[in-house]
Write a structure and sequence with these properties.
Distance between the termini: 22 Å
Strand content: under 5%
Largest sheet: 2 strands, antiparallel
Number of strands: 2
Structural class: mainly alpha
Number of helices: 6
Shape: elongated
Length: about 140
């Protein structure tokens, strides 16, 4: 079932507010480029397998340094495979009307955390906007 234009706009505003409030969380739950992340996963898993092979060779040949290199390669491969390479989305301060004011430039020093400390939280503003929309209909 398709969303109405109003619902799409509301969803877009919620997404912008989520990026402004917690960009790390929003980036984790959103997948922008499946091909790139799949490639990172494959390269990382290959590095883990090669590292595991080096660890076994180091144990069989009693070469501690080779085992250490293999272990380091395994850890680096795992970090590479599961670390996010996607850029963080737009950040800024969510205004009362739901729009996002970007942080930086002339408004430097105004972080989303400072905005939360001054005013209301994201969920409170979202609930207020929802109630206003229901009243206006």
């Amino acid at each position: 079932m398709a969303l109405s234009e109003r619902e799409q706009k509301l969803l877009e505003q919620m997404e912008q507010a989520l990026y402004a409030e917690d960009p790390r969380f929003a980036t984790r739950i959103r997948s922008q480029d499946g091909g790139r992340s799949r490639r990172r996963l494959v390269i990382g898993l290959v590095a883990v397998l090669v590292g595991l092979g080096l660890v076994f060779l180091g144990v069989l040949d009693k070469l501690v340094w080779l085992g250490a290199v293999g272990f380091a390669l395994m850890v680096a491969g795992a970090v590479w495979a599961f670390a996010s390479a996607r850029p963080v989305g737009p950040t800024g301060v969510v205004r009362g009307d739901g729009s996002v004011h970007p942080v930086g430039g002339s408004s430097a020093g105004k972080s989303p955390k400072a905005a939360r400390a001054r005013g209301q939280g994201f969920m409170q503003r979202l609930e207020e906007r929802w109630e206003r929309r229901e009243r206006d209909q």
